[in-house]
Amino acid sequence: MASNILDGKALGLELQDALQLQVKKLTAAGTIPALTVILVGDDPASQVYVRNKVQTCERTGIRSEMIRYPSDVSPAIVLAKIAELNADPTIDGILVQLPLPKQFDEKIVLEAISPIKDVDGFHAENVGALNQGSPRFIPCTPYGVMKLLEKGKVDLKGKEAVIVGRSNIVGKPMAALLLAKGATVTICHSHTADLGFHTRRADILVAAVGRPNMLTGDMVKPGAVVIDVGINRLENGRLCGDVDFASVQEKAGLITPVPGGVGPMTITMLLTNTVEAAVRRSLQ
Ligand code: NDP
Protein backbone atom coordinates (compact mmCIF):
# COMPACT_ATOMS: atom_id res chain seq x y z
CA MET A 1 0.00 0.00 0.00
CA ALA A 2 1.11 3.59 -0.67
CA SER A 3 2.80 5.28 2.27
CA ASN A 4 0.11 7.84 3.05
CA ILE A 5 -2.58 5.20 3.61
CA LEU A 6 -3.89 4.54 7.10
CA ASP A 7 -4.60 0.83 6.90
CA GLY A 8 -7.56 -0.05 9.13
CA LYS A 9 -7.57 -3.67 8.09
CA ALA A 10 -4.01 -4.21 9.32
CA LEU A 11 -4.51 -2.21 12.51
CA GLY A 12 -7.78 -4.04 13.19
CA LEU A 13 -6.05 -7.42 12.94
CA GLU A 14 -3.20 -6.21 15.15
CA LEU A 15 -5.64 -5.09 17.87
CA GLN A 16 -7.70 -8.26 17.49
CA ASP A 17 -4.61 -10.38 18.11
CA ALA A 18 -4.07 -8.54 21.40
CA LEU A 19 -7.75 -8.97 22.27
CA GLN A 20 -7.52 -12.69 21.58
CA LEU A 21 -4.85 -13.04 24.27
CA GLN A 22 -6.93 -11.01 26.72
CA VAL A 23 -10.00 -13.16 25.99
CA LYS A 24 -7.96 -16.30 26.59
CA LYS A 25 -6.86 -15.05 30.00
CA LEU A 26 -10.38 -13.96 30.98
CA THR A 27 -11.83 -17.27 29.84
CA ALA A 28 -9.21 -19.24 31.77
CA ALA A 29 -10.14 -17.22 34.86
CA GLY A 30 -13.84 -18.09 34.41
CA THR A 31 -15.25 -15.06 32.57
CA ILE A 32 -16.08 -15.77 28.92
CA PRO A 33 -16.70 -12.44 27.16
CA ALA A 34 -20.09 -12.63 25.43
CA LEU A 35 -21.91 -10.43 22.93
CA THR A 36 -25.49 -10.77 21.72
CA VAL A 37 -26.49 -9.05 18.49
CA ILE A 38 -30.17 -8.53 17.66
CA LEU A 39 -31.05 -8.23 14.00
CA VAL A 40 -34.57 -7.27 12.94
CA GLY A 41 -35.65 -7.65 9.32
CA ASP A 42 -33.70 -8.58 6.23
CA ASP A 43 -31.81 -5.46 5.20
CA PRO A 44 -28.90 -6.89 3.14
CA ALA A 45 -26.27 -4.43 4.45
CA SER A 46 -27.29 -5.08 8.07
CA GLN A 47 -27.04 -8.82 7.49
CA VAL A 48 -23.48 -8.42 6.21
CA TYR A 49 -22.49 -6.16 9.15
CA VAL A 50 -23.96 -8.55 11.73
CA ARG A 51 -22.37 -11.60 10.12
CA ASN A 52 -18.98 -9.85 10.15
CA LYS A 53 -19.41 -8.87 13.80
CA VAL A 54 -20.30 -12.40 14.87
CA GLN A 55 -17.51 -14.00 12.81
CA THR A 56 -14.89 -11.58 14.13
CA CYS A 57 -16.02 -12.31 17.69
CA GLU A 58 -15.54 -16.02 17.08
CA ARG A 59 -12.06 -15.41 15.71
CA THR A 60 -11.03 -13.76 18.96
CA GLY A 61 -12.75 -16.26 21.24
CA ILE A 62 -15.63 -13.99 22.29
CA ARG A 63 -18.86 -15.95 22.64
CA SER A 64 -21.37 -14.36 20.31
CA GLU A 65 -24.96 -15.01 19.44
CA MET A 66 -27.21 -13.48 16.82
CA ILE A 67 -30.94 -13.28 17.52
CA ARG A 68 -33.05 -12.65 14.43
CA TYR A 69 -36.60 -11.37 14.14
CA PRO A 70 -38.77 -10.87 11.05
CA SER A 71 -39.28 -7.27 9.91
CA ASP A 72 -42.90 -7.23 11.17
CA VAL A 73 -42.03 -8.30 14.74
CA SER A 74 -43.75 -6.39 17.51
CA PRO A 75 -41.40 -4.00 19.40
CA ALA A 76 -42.71 -5.52 22.67
CA ILE A 77 -41.12 -8.87 21.76
CA VAL A 78 -37.72 -7.28 21.10
CA LEU A 79 -37.94 -5.17 24.28
CA ALA A 80 -38.76 -8.31 26.31
CA LYS A 81 -35.69 -10.04 24.85
CA ILE A 82 -33.52 -7.04 25.73
CA ALA A 83 -34.84 -7.16 29.32
CA GLU A 84 -33.99 -10.86 29.47
CA LEU A 85 -30.44 -10.22 28.18
CA ASN A 86 -29.99 -7.31 30.61
CA ALA A 87 -30.71 -9.73 33.46
CA ASP A 88 -28.47 -12.51 32.12
CA PRO A 89 -25.20 -12.40 34.08
CA THR A 90 -23.31 -14.28 31.36
CA ILE A 91 -23.89 -11.59 28.69
CA ASP A 92 -21.49 -8.63 28.57
CA GLY A 93 -22.66 -6.77 25.51
CA ILE A 94 -26.00 -6.25 23.76
CA LEU A 95 -26.19 -4.63 20.35
CA VAL A 96 -29.29 -3.92 18.31
CA GLN A 97 -28.37 -3.48 14.65
CA LEU A 98 -29.71 -0.26 13.18
CA PRO A 99 -31.75 0.76 11.27
CA LEU A 100 -34.90 -0.82 12.70
CA PRO A 101 -38.19 -1.20 10.81
CA LYS A 102 -40.63 1.70 11.03
CA GLN A 103 -42.85 0.30 13.81
CA PHE A 104 -39.87 0.79 16.16
CA ASP A 105 -38.83 3.93 18.02
CA GLU A 106 -35.05 3.48 17.91
CA LYS A 107 -34.55 5.73 20.90
CA ILE A 108 -36.80 3.55 23.10
CA VAL A 109 -34.95 0.41 22.01
CA LEU A 110 -31.48 1.89 22.61
CA GLU A 111 -32.52 3.21 26.02
CA ALA A 112 -33.85 -0.25 26.96
CA ILE A 113 -30.34 -1.73 26.81
CA SER A 114 -28.63 -1.66 30.18
CA PRO A 115 -25.98 1.12 30.05
CA ILE A 116 -23.40 -1.33 31.44
CA LYS A 117 -24.00 -3.68 28.47
CA ASP A 118 -24.37 -0.92 25.86
CA VAL A 119 -21.20 -1.77 23.91
CA ASP A 120 -22.27 0.50 21.04
CA GLY A 121 -22.22 3.45 23.45
CA PHE A 122 -25.56 4.82 22.22
CA HIS A 123 -27.47 4.92 25.55
CA ALA A 124 -28.13 8.49 26.74
CA GLU A 125 -26.27 7.78 29.98
CA ASN A 126 -23.18 6.73 28.02
CA VAL A 127 -23.49 9.64 25.60
CA GLY A 128 -23.58 11.98 28.61
CA ALA A 129 -20.56 10.31 30.18
CA LEU A 130 -18.61 10.66 26.92
CA ASN A 131 -19.44 14.34 26.65
CA GLN A 132 -18.39 14.90 30.26
CA GLY A 133 -15.02 13.37 29.45
CA SER A 134 -15.43 10.13 31.42
CA PRO A 135 -16.69 7.61 28.87
CA ARG A 136 -17.92 4.15 29.86
CA PHE A 137 -18.19 2.89 26.26
CA ILE A 138 -16.94 4.93 23.31
CA PRO A 139 -19.09 4.50 20.17
CA CYS A 140 -17.23 2.05 17.96
CA THR A 141 -16.77 4.01 14.73
CA PRO A 142 -15.33 7.21 16.25
CA TYR A 143 -13.33 5.07 18.67
CA GLY A 144 -11.83 3.26 15.68
CA VAL A 145 -11.03 6.59 14.02
CA MET A 146 -9.17 7.72 17.16
CA LYS A 147 -7.13 4.51 17.11
CA LEU A 148 -6.25 5.11 13.44
CA LEU A 149 -5.15 8.68 14.24
CA GLU A 150 -3.06 7.34 17.12
CA LYS A 151 -1.48 4.76 14.80
CA GLY A 152 -0.69 7.53 12.30
CA LYS A 153 0.91 9.54 15.16
CA VAL A 154 -1.38 12.45 14.35
CA ASP A 155 -0.98 15.23 16.89
CA LEU A 156 -4.44 16.70 17.48
CA LYS A 157 -3.65 19.46 19.93
CA GLY A 158 -4.43 22.88 18.46
CA LYS A 159 -5.33 21.40 15.06
CA GLU A 160 -8.40 22.28 13.02
CA ALA A 161 -10.66 19.23 12.82
CA VAL A 162 -13.66 19.34 10.50
CA ILE A 163 -16.31 16.62 10.60
CA VAL A 164 -18.85 16.37 7.81
CA GLY A 165 -21.98 14.73 9.26
CA ARG A 166 -23.66 15.21 12.64
CA SER A 167 -25.25 11.84 13.39
CA ASN A 168 -25.48 10.49 16.92
CA ILE A 169 -23.46 7.41 16.00
CA VAL A 170 -20.58 9.05 14.12
CA GLY A 171 -20.39 12.85 13.79
CA LYS A 172 -21.32 13.97 17.31
CA PRO A 173 -19.24 11.44 19.31
CA MET A 174 -16.37 12.03 16.87
CA ALA A 175 -16.51 15.72 17.76
CA ALA A 176 -16.45 14.96 21.50
CA LEU A 177 -13.38 12.74 21.12
CA LEU A 178 -11.42 15.19 18.96
CA LEU A 179 -12.33 18.04 21.30
CA ALA A 180 -11.09 16.02 24.27
CA LYS A 181 -7.73 15.68 22.52
CA GLY A 182 -7.38 19.44 22.08
CA ALA A 183 -8.49 19.89 18.47
CA THR A 184 -10.63 22.85 17.45
CA VAL A 185 -13.71 21.16 16.05
CA THR A 186 -16.20 22.20 13.39
CA ILE A 187 -19.19 20.01 12.51
CA CYS A 188 -20.73 20.44 9.05
CA HIS A 189 -24.09 19.09 7.90
CA SER A 190 -26.65 19.39 5.13
CA HIS A 191 -27.37 23.05 5.94
CA THR A 192 -23.75 24.15 6.05
CA ALA A 193 -23.56 27.13 3.69
CA ASP A 194 -20.10 26.68 2.18
CA LEU A 195 -18.79 23.20 2.83
CA GLY A 196 -15.56 23.70 0.90
CA PHE A 197 -14.68 26.77 3.01
CA HIS A 198 -14.64 24.55 6.09
CA THR A 199 -13.07 21.43 4.59
CA ARG A 200 -10.22 23.40 2.99
CA ARG A 201 -9.03 24.66 6.36
CA ALA A 202 -9.12 21.22 8.02
CA ASP A 203 -5.92 19.64 9.30
CA ILE A 204 -8.04 16.60 10.10
CA LEU A 205 -11.07 15.98 7.92
CA VAL A 206 -13.62 13.29 8.81
CA ALA A 207 -16.30 12.46 6.24
CA ALA A 208 -19.42 10.73 7.58
CA VAL A 209 -22.20 11.59 5.17
CA GLY A 210 -23.20 8.62 3.02
CA ARG A 211 -22.71 10.28 -0.38
CA PRO A 212 -20.30 8.60 -2.79
CA ASN A 213 -17.13 10.58 -3.57
CA MET A 214 -18.61 13.93 -2.45
CA LEU A 215 -15.34 15.28 -1.02
CA THR A 216 -12.96 15.96 -3.87
CA GLY A 217 -9.29 16.95 -3.99
CA ASP A 218 -10.05 20.66 -4.45
CA MET A 219 -11.88 20.63 -1.09
CA VAL A 220 -8.86 19.37 0.86
CA LYS A 221 -5.91 21.23 2.35
CA PRO A 222 -2.51 19.89 1.24
CA GLY A 223 -1.14 17.54 3.89
CA ALA A 224 -4.48 17.04 5.67
CA VAL A 225 -5.34 13.80 7.41
CA VAL A 226 -8.50 12.53 5.71
CA ILE A 227 -10.68 9.91 7.39
CA ASP A 228 -13.44 8.42 5.25
CA VAL A 229 -16.22 6.87 7.33
CA GLY A 230 -18.68 6.61 4.44
CA ILE A 231 -19.73 3.25 3.07
CA ASN A 232 -21.66 3.54 -0.17
CA ARG A 233 -22.60 0.79 -2.57
CA LEU A 234 -22.35 1.84 -6.22
CA GLU A 235 -24.58 0.52 -9.01
CA ASN A 236 -21.77 -1.78 -10.15
CA GLY A 237 -21.84 -3.39 -6.69
CA ARG A 238 -18.51 -1.92 -5.56
CA LEU A 239 -18.09 -0.10 -2.25
CA CYS A 240 -16.82 3.45 -2.09
CA GLY A 241 -16.50 6.12 0.57
CA ASP A 242 -17.59 9.74 0.81
CA VAL A 243 -14.11 10.82 -0.29
CA ASP A 244 -13.03 10.79 -3.92
CA PHE A 245 -9.98 8.67 -3.15
CA ALA A 246 -8.01 9.28 -6.35
CA SER A 247 -8.02 13.09 -6.21
CA VAL A 248 -7.77 13.37 -2.41
CA GLN A 249 -4.95 10.86 -1.96
CA GLU A 250 -2.67 13.12 -4.04
CA LYS A 251 -3.15 16.00 -1.58
CA ALA A 252 -3.62 14.26 1.75
CA GLY A 253 -0.87 13.61 4.26
CA LEU A 254 -2.73 10.51 5.40
CA ILE A 255 -5.92 8.94 4.11
CA THR A 256 -8.09 5.94 4.95
CA PRO A 257 -9.28 3.73 2.07
CA VAL A 258 -12.78 2.27 1.61
CA PRO A 259 -12.95 -0.63 2.09
CA GLY A 260 -10.14 -1.39 4.50
CA GLY A 261 -10.12 1.81 6.56
CA VAL A 262 -12.66 2.71 9.21
CA GLY A 263 -14.95 -0.30 8.62
CA PRO A 264 -12.65 -3.00 10.09
CA MET A 265 -11.82 -0.67 12.99
CA THR A 266 -15.51 -0.29 13.89
CA ILE A 267 -15.84 -4.05 14.38
CA THR A 268 -12.56 -4.22 16.29
CA MET A 269 -13.70 -1.53 18.73
CA LEU A 270 -16.98 -3.37 19.28
CA LEU A 271 -14.93 -6.35 20.39
CA THR A 272 -12.76 -4.06 22.51
CA ASN A 273 -15.85 -2.68 24.27
CA THR A 274 -17.21 -6.19 24.82
CA VAL A 275 -13.95 -7.35 26.37
CA GLU A 276 -13.87 -4.20 28.51
CA ALA A 277 -17.37 -5.03 29.78
CA ALA A 278 -16.22 -8.58 30.56
CA VAL A 279 -13.21 -7.26 32.46
CA ARG A 280 -15.56 -5.12 34.59
CA ARG A 281 -17.77 -8.18 35.21
CA SER A 282 -14.74 -10.22 36.24
CA LEU A 283 -13.85 -7.57 38.84
CA GLN A 284 -17.30 -7.58 40.46
P1 NDP B 1 -26.59 9.77 8.74
O1 NDP B 1 -27.42 9.65 7.51
O2 NDP B 1 -27.20 9.54 10.06
O3 NDP B 1 -25.92 11.22 8.76
C1 NDP B 1 -25.40 11.80 7.60
C2 NDP B 1 -24.97 13.20 7.91
O4 NDP B 1 -24.48 13.78 6.72
C3 NDP B 1 -26.10 14.10 8.42
O5 NDP B 1 -25.66 14.82 9.55
C4 NDP B 1 -26.39 15.02 7.25
O6 NDP B 1 -26.79 16.31 7.63
C5 NDP B 1 -25.03 15.09 6.60
N1 NDP B 1 -25.15 15.47 5.18
C6 NDP B 1 -25.99 14.97 4.25
N2 NDP B 1 -25.78 15.59 3.06
C7 NDP B 1 -24.82 16.50 3.27
C8 NDP B 1 -24.19 17.45 2.43
N3 NDP B 1 -24.52 17.59 1.15
N4 NDP B 1 -23.22 18.23 2.97
C9 NDP B 1 -22.87 18.12 4.26
N5 NDP B 1 -23.44 17.22 5.11
C10 NDP B 1 -24.40 16.42 4.60
O7 NDP B 1 -25.34 8.82 8.49
P2 NDP B 1 -24.35 8.07 9.50
O8 NDP B 1 -23.61 9.04 10.33
O9 NDP B 1 -25.05 6.97 10.15
O10 NDP B 1 -23.36 7.42 8.43
C11 NDP B 1 -22.61 8.22 7.54
C12 NDP B 1 -21.89 7.32 6.57
O11 NDP B 1 -20.98 6.51 7.31
C13 NDP B 1 -22.76 6.33 5.81
O12 NDP B 1 -22.19 6.11 4.54
C14 NDP B 1 -22.68 5.06 6.63
O13 NDP B 1 -22.90 3.90 5.84
C15 NDP B 1 -21.25 5.13 7.08
N6 NDP B 1 -20.96 4.42 8.31
C16 NDP B 1 -19.82 3.68 8.32
C17 NDP B 1 -19.44 3.02 9.43
C18 NDP B 1 -18.16 2.27 9.39
O14 NDP B 1 -17.96 1.38 10.19
N7 NDP B 1 -17.24 2.62 8.49
C19 NDP B 1 -20.26 3.01 10.64
C20 NDP B 1 -21.40 3.89 10.57
C21 NDP B 1 -21.73 4.54 9.43
P3 NDP B 1 -28.19 16.61 8.39
O15 NDP B 1 -27.97 16.17 9.81
O16 NDP B 1 -28.36 18.07 8.25
O17 NDP B 1 -29.23 15.79 7.69
Query: Could you report the average pLDDT, rounded to the nearest whole number?
Result: 97
- For the biggest β-sheet, the strand order reads 5-4-6-7-10
In CATH, the topology of the largest domain is named: Rossmann fold
Q: What is the 3D shape? A: globular
Tell me the strand percentage band: 5-15%
Query: Could you name the ranges where pLDDT drops below 50 across 5 or more consecutive residues?
Result: none
- What series of H and E elements makes up the topology? HEHEHEHHHEHEHEEEEHEH
Name the structural class. alpha/beta
What CATH architecture label of the largest domain applies?
A: 3-Layer(aba) Sandwich
Please outline the helices and strands.
Blueprint: H1 8-28, E1 34-40, H2 44-60, E2 63-69, H3 75-87, E3 93-96, H4 106-112, H5 124-131, H6 140-151, E4 160-164, H7 171-180, E5 184-188, H8 195-199, E6 204-207, E7 225-228, E8 232-233, E9 239-240, H9 245-249, E10 254-255, H10 262-282
Parallel strand pairs: 1-2, 1-3, 4-5, 4-6, 6-7, 7-10
Antiparallel strand pairs: 8-9
The structure holds NADPH dihydro-nicotinamide-adenine-dinucleotide phosphate.
